[in-house]
Amino acid sequence: MTTTKTRTRKVKISRKKWLRGNNDSYMVNSRGHMCCLGFAANQISRIPKKDMCMISVPEEVYSKDSFLTNVDHVRHGMSGMNISFNNDFADKAMRINDNKEISDKMREYKLKLLFEKHGIELTFVD
Length: 126
Prior knowledge:
The chain is of the alpha+beta class. The protein has four helices and four strands.
């Protein structure tokens, strides 16, 4: 009997570059600052920052390897098309990251718990 070890994915968020709890809700803004999902998509799915610049939600970024969206194949006339939408993980992460009512300490705690449930070790650095 062989057992397979699941490798924990790791995401490191720089507090100096972290967009959170404000009106600037982009995965990556024009100054290169990122929300938690911007960091995750860049470090796990290797999505370039330029592809996420001024994009508000993961469903607007195409990646066949993204863990942030679900893709449905929808019939449209004679051809089919893939439609991407944010998954539950991404929706929860956005709500926590952009919540203006909680402290950064609480935001970090809630994000760490959420990411951990999805097999991602989240760390914050100065």
